[in-house]
Design brief:
Elements: E1 3-4, H1 8-22, H2 26-42, H3 51-63, H4 70-86, E2 93-94, H5 95-109, H6 118-131, H7 136-139, H8 164-173, E3 177-184, E4 187-193, E5 202-205, H9 207-210, E6 218-223, E7 230-231, H10 276-284, H11 299-318, E8 322-323, E9 326-333, E10 341-345, H12 347-361, E11 375-380, E12 388-391, H13 397-404, E13 413-421, E14 430-439, H14 443-453, H15 463-466, H16 478-483, E15 485-486, E16 492-496, E17 505-511, E18 516-524, H17 535-543, E19 547-549, E20 552-554, H18 559-565, E21 573-584, E22 589-600, E23 603-606, H19 607-615, H20 639-662, E24 672-677, E25 683-689, H21 693-716, E26 722-725, H22 731-743, H23 753-766, H24 771-781, E27 789-792, H25 823-845, H26 854-859, H27 870-874, H28 876-888, H29 894-930, E28 933-942, E29 946-951, E30 956-961, E31 968-973, E32 978-983, E33 1005-1008, H30 1013-1016, E34 1058-1059, E35 1062-1064, E36 1069-1077, E37 1085-1093
Parallel strand pairs: 12-14, 15-22, 16-23, 33-37, 34-37
Antiparallel strand pairs: 1-2, 3-4, 3-6, 4-5, 6-9, 7-8, 10-11, 10-13, 11-12, 13-14, 16-17, 17-18, 18-21, 19-20, 21-22, 24-25, 26-27, 28-29, 28-36, 29-30, 31-32, 32-35, 36-37
Helix pairs in contact: 1-2, 1-4, 1-5, 2-3, 2-4, 3-4, 14-29, 20-21, 21-25, 25-28
EC number: 3.1.13.-
Family: Belongs to the RNR ribonuclease family. DIS3L2 subfamily.
Protein name: DIS3-like exonuclease 2
Length: 1097
């Protein structure tokens, strides 16, 4: 057996990484180090220094005199161990032991949290490596060997997960709690879990306590005793008087504001109900853990769990400055994100290892072979995920071929991977590479990565699916004309974005008397074409939503259906599901009718057309110049009919909106950033776009339709209706927002949604001269809002108060209006169809159908009219009719629908993540093209180490870290929460920590000479030219006018640099320089620096 000496630098590296990564602070470091060293030495039988000597050297010099910081701890311990080992000159390690220790050290080192700019950290690591001898790089490579005979000697770094039985018992007794695991994107060692009934998230701090859980896992958490709880952030004055922010960087909680979707509000579903479990397993990979059933046991069991939550709440109230801490004891359900990891392979380090390996073994350069024990490090692009180890021999052949050719460009390419295993003996999870996505600095590979990361289907529709579609040309069948209500003689039209092709809703209005308007919402009858359990239905459930990422669209349904025979295109007979109301001049609904219809849209209006009509800019004389001339109108109607209808709908919509907000609805205003694209699909500018009256017109009637559908299906099928609820806000976060507003002289009442809306309206008037601050307040007012979610009514049968929608202030709500792009709407259509058919069955069973003509049969309603006949629904005949209709239309039962609703919510979140990631990608591409963007920013949070800023021009938040910066003096005034930054020319600022961690001033501030202002300032435009330029909306149509609004390099004097010393307080306005970060081998990000001017730098 060959042996190696354990060199001093290897001991330094091993102990340094062990101490600095396994322990979060100096106290834990002191407590842990000796056991770590003992465990390390015990894994190598040949490592046998005398026990008395080891104890003497370790304990007196280290444990009895603990150092102040982990860095000192690392330095002290490595020297102690070197001294210990140096007393045994004959100490020699077998090669497998050295490889194991090196691999273990590297596995620990990759867990290092990144607290500064990643690009600069990479440079510093490169500089340090260049100063070391070539042999040192061998011990720092991201490759390790595992010997099967040595596996029993490996240390287990994690405690075993509890068994299913133990978890169930602990959940029942309140000894553990079920929660989702969420990781802080700024510090992966911090994670949080929200326990139902506990007002504060529980902190899971450190690798050991997280116990192999990853972002999105459903875990069992055991809360630690009070003595181990941590101090709440901000309670010690580290981050005072800041705008309320999240402890972890989770998705901002959205509020329901638009029932019309229009490519903005997209939800997903999954496979056929009878195959739901199997399809979920297929889509998300196998789950090695058994499922944990819901606990609905006896009242004593529920009381135990409730008492445990009450005790935690009592301790929180008694110690408001403390945050509960806990640990993960089991993974109940694995996150789907485990199967959709995107990252980079660290192949350059692997090449370094191969060079050293070939020198040692004297192998030929051309004879590269891979062993079963070689691993390459995978660095995920998502900072919430740990680094991973990938077996070289299991890599795809295309990657192994390039490795043999020493192709280092692999490191610049994104790879798709999945986590295979994370055992107790491995500090890092083991992953498997699926395929290469492409160069990370290009848009298309990044889009592919976004879609893969969110498990969004990109495959073409199969021939089996396409065979379910009717042949073209298609016409409305005769039997449908006979059985449906014919509305082709009613002036009906669509209102959509100008480039929209999937038109799934239309509007109509008629004045039937002096005080009554008959308003119709007509939705494409997609359920007529998408039949239950057919291939098309299964595919639609799997895709479940049309995903729009600016210029990329992935449809839920084939184009023939979504853009042709199912779309409500003008001048064609189309099948629809209609809800028609009779509304009086006070906005009250006096009657309604719901049923299947045949309609013919007379024209397609854009939002801008409708806005021009509302504003009085459009009449018959100029319509032809805007694309909807007389030749495009159906022969039965004229332009005057459309204009009159739009004006009537606008007046009715205003009444409905006023009533809705009087009833307590909440609207959190926010402008949307949209991009302008050139003919190549590259963004060259952006602008803010706000909702106009035309948007609200459509929104009001879509919201009314969704509310009506929810009312009908929940009454007809109280145990199996798919509704959408929005819980009340997080009260702690709402109180924090209220306190912040009060501190800055803004009074806000959060006692109800109505009062909150009124308060925000008054604040808007107060801040009419500071719209940026109002936008910030609106953004943070949405933070306490919880996510709206689909649910099955049967799951909350005894808690009907929980069915309500907080932001809309309605007791019942669902999604009905977007069946071409949202599968839940198709399910709601089927449930509505079942209720309508049950009415006919009931009439037939009661012998009433023969006495009615067709018109009477259509208008005689028991379950869908404004007056619900509860006696009929609960009668024997009514129950039989409803059950038979539900079976015919395949309405899922309570048990299945609960799982379906949960999957809908998962897919909703994935769709939102994809859209947000796509938006960030195009923003990055825009900054990459501009190189530097100068803008004003508002300070949201402030402390001695970093500040959080809001850039209104881009509607994003960033952080600027100024801790341990060469040449920068920091003065933090605690009492006034004021920060003073100044240049320190002659000496380093006195900061704690190693000098090697200090960063250059250029990392924090872009400092220019006042003489160079005219040549170095880069301006970002935010206005739009006329003449054909369009906004990049959901469909992402290229723009006809690619000329940039502002040329880079030309100054317009909008934003001037600040000067040193810089004094900053909360809500101060400061100039910043933004730039694109990453691209080739690095994750994409947007960097922010202070924009400063100085003669002395």
């Amino acid at each position: 057996m060959s042996h190696y000496h354990l060199h001093n630098y290897e001991i330094d590296h091993l102990l340094g990484t062990l101490i600095s990564e396994l322990v979060p602070d100096a106290v834990d470091c002191t407590r842990t180090t000796s056991s770590v060293i003992r465990a390390t030495l015990s894994t190598v039988p040949e490592l046998r220094p005398p026990s008395f000597e080891l104890c003497y050297r370790l304990y007196p010099s280290y444990v009895l005199r603990p150092p102040s910081y982990a860095v000192d701890c690392t330095r002290t311990t490595s020297s102690v161990l070197r001294a210990t080992l140096s007393t045994v000159p004959e100490l020699r390690l077998p090669s497998y032991a050295v490889n194991f220790m090196r691999g273990m050290a590297e596995q620990i080192s990759v867990e290092r949290s990144e607290d500064g700019d990643k690009e600069k950290k990479k440079k510093r690591r490169s500089n340090r490596r260049s100063k070391q001898s070539p042999s040192i790089s061998v011990c720092k490579i991201s490759i390790c060997f595992h010997n099967e005979g040595f596996s029993d000697m490996q240390r287990k770094y994690f405690v075993p997960h509890w068994s299913v039985e133990a978890v169930n018992e602990a959940l029942e007794k309140g000894d553990a709690f079920k929660a989702y695991f969420r990781v802080n994107a700024h510090n992966r060692l911090e994670a949080y879990c929200t326990i139902d009934g506990v007002p504060i998230d529980v902190l899971i701090n450190g690798v050991a306590t997280q116990n192999r859980a990853v972002e999105g896992d459903m875990v069992a958490v055991k809360v630690d005793p009070l003595v181990f709880w941590t101090r709440m952030k901000g309670s010690a004055g580290n981050y005072n008087h800041s705008v309320p922010t999240e402890e972890c960087n989770v998705l901002p909680e959205a509020v329901e504001v638009d029932g019309n979707c229009k490519g903005k509000d997209k939800i997903d579903a999954n496979c056929a109900y009878t195959e739901l479990v199997g399809c979920r397993s297929y889509n998300y990979g196998s789950n090695e853990h058994n499922s944990y059933p819901s606990h609905v046991g006896c009242s004593s069991v529920q009381n135990e769990a409730s008492n445990a939550v009450a005790k935690i709440c009592a301790m929180i109230n008694s110690f408001p400055s403390k945050r509960p801490a806990g640990r993960v004891v089991a993974i109940i359900e694995r996150s789907p994100r485990r199967d959709t990891v995107v990252g980079f392979l660290s192949v350059k380090q692997w090449f370094s290892y191969r060079q050293g390996y070939k020198k040692d073994t004297k192998k030929n350069n051309n004879s590269i072979s891979f062993s079963n024990w070689e691993y390459i490090q995978l660095t995920p692009t998502d900072p919430k995920f740990p680094k991973m180890m990938v077996s070289v021999i299991d890599l795809p052949d295309c990657i192994k071929k390039r490795l043999k050719e020493c192709d280092a460009t692999i490191e610049m390419e994104l790879v798709a991977a999945r986590i295979d295993d994370w055992g107790e003996e491995n500090l890092l999870p083991q992953a498997h590479i699926i395929h290469i996505l492409g160069r990370s600095g290009e848009i298309e590979p990044q889009i592919a990565a976004i879609l893969f990361e969110n498990a969004i289907c990109t495959a073409d529709f199969s021939s089996e699916v396409l065979s379910c579609l009717p042949t073209v040309p298609w016409e409305v069948p005769k039997e449908e004309l006979e059985s449906r209500r014919d509305l082709r003689n009613v002036c009906t039209f669509t209102i959509d974005p100008s480039a929209a092709t999937d038109l799934d809703d239309a509007l109509s209005v008629e004045r039937i008397s002096n005080g009554i308007f008959r308003v119709g919402v007509h939705i494409a009858d997609v359920s007529y074409f998408v039949l239950p359990d057919k291939a098309l239905d299964r595919e639609a459930q799997i895709r479940s939503t049309s995903v729009y990422i600016l210029q990329h669209k992935l449809p839920m349904l084939p184009k023939l259906l979504s853009e042709d025979i199912g779309s409500l295109i003008p001048w064609e007979d189309r099948l629809a599901f209609s809800i028609i109301w009779d509304i009086n001049l006070d906005g009250d609904i006096v009657d309604r009718w719901i049923g299947r219809t045949v309609i013919r849209s007379c024209c397609k209006l854009s939002y801008q057309h409708v806005q021009d009509i509302i504003d009085g800019f459009m009449d018959e004389g100029n319509l032809s110049t805007l694309g909807i001339g007389c030749s495009q109108m159906h022969d039965q109607f004229e332009l005057a009919d459309v204009i009159k209808s739009v004006k009537s709908l606008h007046e009715i919509a205003k009444m409905l909106k006023e009533i809705r907000f009087e009833d307590g609805a909440l609207h959190l205003e926010s402008s949307k950033l949209v991009f302008l694209f050139d003919e190549c699909g590259i963004p060259y500018d952006s602008m803010h776009c706000e909702q106009k009256d035309s948007n609200f017109l459509v929104e009001e009637f879509m919201l009314l339709a969704n509310r009506t559908a929810a009312e009908v299906i929940s009454r007809a099928f109280p145990d199996c209706a798919l509704l959408r609820r929005h819980p009340e806000p997080n009260m702690r976060k709402l109180r924090e927002f209220e306190a912040f507003c009060s501190k800055h002289g803004l009074q806000v009442d959060t006692s109800s949604s109505r009062k909150l809306h009124l308060s925000l309206g008054k604040i808007k008037e107060m801040l009419k001269n500071d719209p940026v601050l109002f936008d910030i307040l609106m953004s943070y007012a949405s933070r306490p809002m919880q996510l709206a979610a689909y649910f099955c009514t049967g799951d909350l049968k005894d808690r009907e108060t929980d069915w309500a929608h907080y932001s809309l202030a309605v007791p019942l709500y669902t999604h009905f209006t977007c069946p071409l792009r949202r599968y839940p709407d198709i399910l709601v259509h089927r449930t509505l169809a079942a209720a309508i058919e049950a009415e006919g069955m009931y009439l037939k069973q009661r012998g009433m159908l023969q006495k009615m003509n067709k018109v009477e049969a259509m208008t005689r309603k028991f379950f869908t009219s404004i007056y619900f006949d509860k006696d009929a629904a609960e009668s024997k005949d009514g129950q039989e009719a409803l059950s038979a209709a539900a079976l015919k239309h395949r309405v899922p039962c309570t048990e299945i629908l609960g799982d379906v609703a949960a999957y809908f919510n998962e897919r909703k979140l994935a769709s939102k993540h994809a859209e947000d990631a796509g938006h960030k990608l195009y923003l990055w591409a825009l900054l990459k093209k501009k190189e530097i963007l100068i803008s004003e920013a508002r300070v949201l949070g402030l402390g001695p180490k970093f500040m959080s800023i809001y850039i209104h021009k881009l509607a994003i938040e960033r952080r600027i870290n100024y801790d341990e910066v060469e040449g920068l003096r920091i003065e933090w005034l605690e009492t006034t929460s004021t920060l003073v930054l100044d240049i320190c020319m002659n000496k380093r600022s006195q900061r704690r920590g190693s000098p090697s961690r200090w960063r250059a001033l250029e990392d924090v501030a872009w400092v220019i000479s006042p003489c160079d202002l005219k040549t170095k300032q880069v301006v970002f435009g935010n206005t739009c030219e006329d003449g054909g330029t369009q906004l990049g909306g959901a469909t992402g149509v290229p723009f006809k006018d690619p000329e940039p609004i502002h040329n880079p390099g030309i100054s317009d004097g909008e934003t001037d640099p600040a000067v040193f010393p810089l004094t900053v307080q909360i809500l101060s306005t400061i100039p910043v320089a933004l730039h694109a970060v990453g691209g080739d081998g690095e994750p994409l990000d947007i960097g922010a620096r202070l924009y400063m001017s100085s003669y002395f730098w």
